[in-house]
Structure formats: structure tokens, C-alpha cells
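FORM 12-B: Structure-to-Sequence Request
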């Protein structure tokens, strides 16, 4: 009985989701960044105190509106979104944030077993692979969410816009891996 509980706990640990990147699109108004033409500028953003890696953004000014859109990449925790937006507002160039949306979450987990990729790919209509060019099977989980399964049992999820979508994709992909592992 005790051993079964230990095995269940180990399985849960192995399938824990890690966020690799969160991409956020934020709209700002009232800043000094303006132009007659639409501009796209890559900007370095302040990194949260808890981070070693820099966060980057792509700033796009709008031709006819006093707005700019910044696509922010490199965020690993949801708490960092507000922190980065406040830091951008503090700089003053973009003005104040009028709202933001999460446009992509990239996550990863370990399924805890190896996977027969050829069997997996051939059994699914929504999967594709070319193992001579890429060492994984790409699976369409939904219209926008994709999973990439590697023979080692590592699985990447991309295209989700919420943790609920990430979790749904994880459950689906874990089920598939368990069938072909």
C-alpha cells in the first residue's frame, strides 16, 4: 500500500509542468514613442529581480493612433507579467498600459518513459514527423495548441493561452505517451 502511494507520487513529480516562456501582447497609450509611420523596434526590458535571463520586447507604434503595442517574451512566471508592465510604464516612453493578453505559453514536462515515435506518429491522424530531420513527433492537440513528443519522454507544449489549455494538453499528451511508451 505504501509502495503504491510512493509510485503515484513519483509519477506526479515526473509529469510536473514547467513554464519555459510566456508571450504577452500589451497595449500602451500616452507615451513619447510616436511616429508618422509604423515602427517596429526591439527593446530590452528590465528583468524581474528573481530572473537571471533578460526579457525582450518588440514595440510597434501605430500610424494613426497614439498607441503602441509591445510583445513581451522571456517571462517564466505569471507574477512577472505585472512586474514587467509596471517597469515599462515607469520608463515613460510607452505610456500607461491599457490592457494585455497572453498570446502563447510554452511549457514542458517529462512523461517518465521512452516513446516509440514511429508507432505514435503512424497511429494518429493529427501527428506528423520526419525523424531524419527532427527528433520528435508534432501532435495537434487543438486548433492552436501543439505538442512535441520526443523519444526520451520529454514533451513540449506550445500555443496555449492559459494554464487550463496547458493542463488539458498535458493530460491528452500524457495519455498518448502512456499508450506508446
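FORM 12-B RESPONSE
SEQUENCE OUT:
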Amino acid at each position: 500500500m505504501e509502495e503504491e502511494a510512493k509510485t503515484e507520487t513519483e509519477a506526479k513529480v515526473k509529469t510536473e509542468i514547467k513554464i519555459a516562456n510566456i508571450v504577452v501582447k500589451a497595449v500602451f497609450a500616452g507615451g513619447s514613442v510616436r511616429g508618422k509611420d509604423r515602427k517596429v523596434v526591439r527593446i530590452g526590458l528590465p528583468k524581474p529581480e528573481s530572473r537571471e535571463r533578460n526579457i525582450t520586447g518588440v514595440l510597434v507604434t501605430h500610424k494613426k493612433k497614439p498607441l503602441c503595442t509591445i510583445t513581451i517574451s522571456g517571462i517564466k512566471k505569471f507574477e512577472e507579467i505585472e512586474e514587467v508592465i509596471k517597469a515599462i510604464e515607469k520608463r515613460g516612453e510607452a505610456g500607461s498600459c491599457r490592457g494585455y493578453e497572453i498570446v502563447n505559453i510554452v511549457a514542458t514536462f517529462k512523461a517518465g518513459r521512452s516513446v516509440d515515435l514511429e508507432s505514435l506518429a503512424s497511429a494518429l491522424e493529427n501527428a506528423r514527423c520526419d525523424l531524419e530531420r527532427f527528433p520528435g513527433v508534432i501532435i495537434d492537440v487543438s486548433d492552436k495548441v501543439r505538442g512535441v513528443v520526443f523519444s526520451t519522454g520529454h514533451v513540449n507544449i506550445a500555443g496555449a493561452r492559459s494554464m487550463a489549455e496547458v493542463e488539458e494538453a498535458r493530460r491528452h499528451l500524457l495519455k498518448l505517451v502512456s499508450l506508446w511508451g
